[in-house]
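Milestone M4 deliverable, item 7.
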Amino acid sequence: MIELAVRWSLVEDNPEATEGELTRMKIDLVRKSTLARCADRLNLRECIVTGPDFGGREISDSVAADAYEAIAGALFVDSGFEKVLHFVKDTLMTHEKASCKGDPKTLLQEYCQARKIPLPEYRTDLTAGPSHAPVFDISVIIKGFVLGTGRATSKKISQEMAASAALQALEGEDLNGFYAE
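Output delivered:
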């Protein structure tokens, strides 16, 4: 429901945007971290009741985002799409800025494709911590060079951090012959 409401709103608000731009904006708006911020604005983490197996841990962004999505689903079942659309506009669209740039991994891939550079490869260098809270160290490698690294509690975020660092390196520094054939 949230994705449909976001797509609907983006098309209404951005009639001149291309399909690709709308898709990248939608991705920004429906990712777990964005929906978790919406949940936080509604104080949903405080309302989530966990069982004894949860062990008093903090409510994760993923669970908070799921709670936000559950409210949208309940609104749809109870009152229809129009209510969901208003809910999403009020709690998400008016507070979050959508970018048509895309996420760092997509931008890095597009950067490489535009310059006919081999596509990036992501390597997990280290997984540390307990199984319920791992930390991932990930490198992005292009043409045999490690151009960026990232460390986070999810592989996706680690890869995005590494891609962002690689983009900064590619756009702003002399890479000692990286571009040489």
